[in-house]
Specification:
With 223 residues, this protein is mainly α. The chain has helices at residues 16-23, 72-84, 104-124, 126-133, 140-148, 152-166, 175-201, 206-217; strands at 2-5, 52-53, 89-95. A 3-stranded mixed sheet has the order 2-1-3, with no helix packed on it.
């Protein structure tokens, strides 16, 4: 399988959150990929279908139980690689521009959905889920025990700080400041994913888990 590059579009009103999407590994990991070894197998975790070419003979059906664009491609790529021994090679010159902008709350929803669908993946393809997450989202007790160890009020405050800066113009923000901001977001992002996974284990739909995740992570109601 051949993964092409997919740089994020640069809008005329470039915001802090736009730069974070482009220059960090928030969504994709292109910023950490070595472009010097064309024969390096990046594995199924890099088979993102936003820009991927595959031989027709290895095509498999996507699992309809993974109805959201969140691990549907990785479940599919895991099965293809296991069945056919396929490699995932990176071709950075095969480039398409990715047009997709976020607001801060949309990012929060995405993180809660990620947790919900990660927990769901254990039921669809446990082997793939364990390869990606270990046992992090596998059980209700594990997920909720992790949440109880966190300071929910502090994490809601941290998200509010990010929300205040995310829509500002990106000019004047150095690469070092951007990296520090991205690092500061890790804790509340992990919290949102755990809340989303808890929603799955408690029988919530993806939509309801996202709503619950936003409410808790913004401090609008208690965990």
């Amino acid at each position: 399988m051949f993964l092409g590059d997919a740089p994020w579009a640069v809008p005329s009103d470039d915001r802090v959150i736009d730069r974070m999407m482009r220059e960090t590994s928030w969504v994709f990991f292109y910023d950490r990929m070595d472009r010097e070894d064309p024969e390096l197998d990046w594995g199924f975790r890099h088979a993102w279908t936003l820009n991927l070419s595959v031989p027709r003979r290895v095509c498999e059906r996507f699992d309809p139980r993974l109805a959201y664009p969140m691990f549907d491609d990785l479940d599919w790529a895991f099965r293809v690689c296991e069945t056919y021994g396929s490699r995932v090679l990176y071709l950075p010159d095969a480039r398409v521009t990715h047009h997709h902008r976020y607001r801060a709350e949309q990012v929060l929803r995405r993180e809660a959905l990620l947790g919900h669908q990660a927990a769901h993946l254990y039921h669809v393809n446990r082997e793939a889920a364990v390869c990606i997450f270990g046992d992090l989202y596998a059980t209700k007790d594990g997920v909720e025990g992790s949440i109880c160890d966190l300071d929910a009020a502090k994490l809601a405050e941290d998200f509010a700080g990010f929300e205040r800066i995310a829509m500002r113009a990106s000019d004047g923000l150095t690469a070092e400041e951007l990296t520090a901001l991205f690092s500061d977001c890790r804790a509340w992002r992990a919290f949102a994913r755990l809340v989303g996974a808890s929603g799955y284990h408690n029988g919530l739909s993806a939509e309801d888990a996202m709503e619950r995740g936003v409410g808790i992570c913004k401090g609008m109601h208690e965990w």
